[in-house]
Task: inverse folding
């Protein structure tokens, strides 16, 4: 693996996005106490040269200080516009070529959002002429859609009165002949009509401490959600209303039965599910029943709270980024975990908030594009060739 370029940046968890020869990433520069500025950088994909930056004031007061290093949500690129969400609810639409701000919303000032403990995390979702956001606004404004060109409100949906908005990424699927916006909040999994915000259905799934972080996963007509405390649930969306196929029985972070994912999004492979449990156990489940087939600590290297890794399929292999900053290429099957190669990719720099083998972790999902991996920490963003 050859490092193509390195570019200094500041703190943040938000992964990079790559589009049309450009890389977009966000960071935070602290000034006095909790105050500072959030920023989006646009870089040349081949050289890492900064083409432009744009920044805005941000005050991280109220965020758990251990994790107040920067934005969480990956920038969303749509044609000639890029949409960015800051950790305290700044939604900004900018021109891709110049960084000029087209429009901006402040969720806290505009919609009375109560920012959750770990900040705002839901990256903007583009659907036709709309940009959809996890807002958590007062009243029925947990989820909102805006005209993507002007920022004008199109619709709002779901009450924010009983719980925080949560942290799971809203995501669009075409299933059962219907285009659905899947919104998983700490009380339920909900399907909305992305054009109107009307509720199609909802399935109760109460999450302890609002810790619903992993992105919901769709495979054929089956939808999987997985949480740190309450485990996993699998729904069949081909039925109307959807049918719960199974749900884990454990509500313990220690005595887990299936898969209790924290930030890592599980993956399907046929009738099997692979993911990382809340203490670093890389696990295989039988999708039809939720039964655990095997587990290993070989991927993460330690059994400790919140140890994790990010999984991306590449043909018949999987690229896995563990939070030690390593890139692993492996094959996964019901027979077990087969490691092909492993290399050190990037220095871990983020505070893990608990005792770990290393003093820091890397909790940022990398981007894969054009036979390269682009990864960031709190000090730099790098591009490495995977061509060989």
Result:
């Amino acid at each position: 693996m050859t490092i193509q370029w390195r570019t200094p940046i500041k703190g943040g968890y938000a992964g990079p996005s790559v589009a049309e020869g450009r890389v977009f990433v966000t960071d935070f520069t602290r000034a006095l106490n909790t105050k500072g500025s959030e920023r989006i950088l646009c870089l040349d994909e081949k050289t890492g040269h900064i083409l432009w930056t744009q920044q805005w004031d941000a005050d991280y007061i109220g965020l758990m200080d251990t994790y107040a290093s920067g934005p969480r949500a990956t920038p969303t690129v749509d044609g000639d516009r890029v949409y960015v969400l800051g950790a305290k609810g700044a939604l900004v639409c900018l021109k891709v070529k110049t960084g000029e701000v087209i429009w901006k919303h402040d969720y806290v000032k505009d919609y009375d959002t109560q920012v959750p403990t770990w900040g705002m995390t839901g990256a903007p979702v583009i659907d036709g002429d709309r940009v959809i956001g996890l807002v958590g606004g007062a009243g029925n404004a947990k989820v909102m859609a805006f005209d993507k060109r002007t920022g004008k409100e199109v619709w709002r949906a779901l009450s924010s009165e009983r719980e925080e908005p949560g942290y799971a990424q809203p995501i669009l699927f075409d299933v059962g002949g219907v285009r659905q916006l899947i919104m998983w909040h700490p009380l339920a999994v909900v399907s909305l009509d992305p054009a109107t915000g009307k509720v199609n259905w909802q399935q109760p799934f109460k999450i302890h401490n609002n810790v619903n972080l992993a992105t919901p996963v769709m495979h054929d007509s089956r939808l999987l959600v997985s949480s740190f405390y309450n485990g996993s649930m699998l729904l069949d969306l081909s039925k109307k209303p959807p049918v719960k196929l199974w749900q884990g029985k454990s509500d313990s972070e220690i005595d887990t039965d299936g898969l209790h994912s924290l930030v890592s999004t599980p993956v399907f492979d046929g009738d099997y599910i692979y993911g990382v449990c809340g203490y670093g156990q890389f696990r295989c489940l039988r999708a039809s029943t939720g039964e655990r087939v095997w587990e290993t600590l070989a991927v993460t290297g330690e059994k400790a709270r919140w140890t994790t890794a990010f999984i991306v399929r590449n043909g018949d292999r999987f690229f896995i980024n563990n939070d030690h900053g390593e890139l692993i290429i492996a094959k996964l099957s019901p027979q077990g975990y087969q490691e092909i190669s492993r290399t050190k990719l990037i220095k871990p720099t983020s505070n893990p908030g608990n005792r770990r083998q290393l003093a820091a972790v890397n909790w940022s999902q990398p981007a894969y594009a054009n036979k390269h991996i682009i990864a960031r920490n709190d000090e730099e963003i790098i591009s490495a060739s995977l061509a060989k």
